[in-house]
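Design job #97: recover the sequence.
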């Protein structure tokens, strides 16, 4: 077993959403959307600290009400429409380590707009990373309803071409290898990897598979309606009252 503790949970929530303004604190059932990520992290005994990194005092206040800590505000240069997430996570790890005077050994990213994960998902991801010293991280994925090997095409010179040329070699859907999509439910990395890597995709990542029915992600009003239906159907974890 390799050490992954203490675990720092980071919940990134920028204030300038355009697809669905205010989405991070928009009420979903009885909680603001960000509350599902905060409560999920707080329900995991393996998580040492739960912080929200944001440029918005309004979001910070809601995050604190849900139980997260906001020891610093996100710098403006990391809160733009064009800001990549990896530098945000690197900054959060660095700033939290300095603030708490703690050497965190792993970083858990919980996107507030993906409320379909559960505390059990987080606990299993942490366990799997600890069990594999060669792994740099664990990424949440799910199996989509269609298989890209067979169904995805591109246009080339005005005509359809297979995105994956080998797809034509399969004559039965049942023979296709399983394909998964990154669904933003959770990301977990070793802290040293976060500090040193320039791109998280360069790491050796384990897959944490959740059902596609729980792979809810909110970017648009239509997505939010989907999340409301998933909540009504019992597909989104709710903290104990």
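Job complete. Output follows.
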């Amino acid at each position: 077993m390799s050490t992954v503790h203490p675990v720092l949970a980071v919940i990134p929530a920028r204030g300038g959403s355009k697809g669905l303004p205010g989405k991070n604190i928009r009420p979903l059932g009885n909680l603001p959307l960000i509350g599902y990520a905060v409560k999920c992290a707080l329900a995991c005994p393996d998580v040492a600290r739960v912080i929200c990194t944001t440029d918005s005092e309004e979001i910070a206040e809601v995050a604190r009400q849900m139980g997260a800590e906001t020891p610093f505000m996100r710098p403006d240069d990391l809160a733009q429409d064009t800001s990549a997430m990896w530098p945000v996570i690197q900054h959060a790890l660095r700033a939290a380590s300095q603030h708490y005077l703690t050497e965190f050994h792993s970083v858990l990213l919980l996107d507030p707009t993906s409320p379909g994960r559960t505390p059990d998902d987080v606990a299993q991801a942490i366990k799997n990373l600890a069990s594999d010293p060669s792994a740099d991280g664990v990424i949440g994925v799910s199996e989509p309803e269609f298989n890209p090997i067979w169904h995805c095409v591109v246009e080339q010179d005005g005509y359809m071409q297979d995105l994956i040329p080998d797809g034509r070699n399969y004559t039965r859907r049942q023979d296709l290898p399983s394909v998964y999509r990154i669904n933003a439910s959770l990301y977990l990395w070793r802290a040293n990897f976060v500090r040193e890597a320039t791109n998280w995709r360069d790491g050796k990542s384990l897959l944490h598979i959740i059902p596609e029915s729980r792979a809810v992600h909110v970017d648009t009003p239509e997505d939010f309606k989907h999340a409301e239906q998933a909540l009504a159907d019992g597909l989104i974890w709710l903290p104990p009252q």
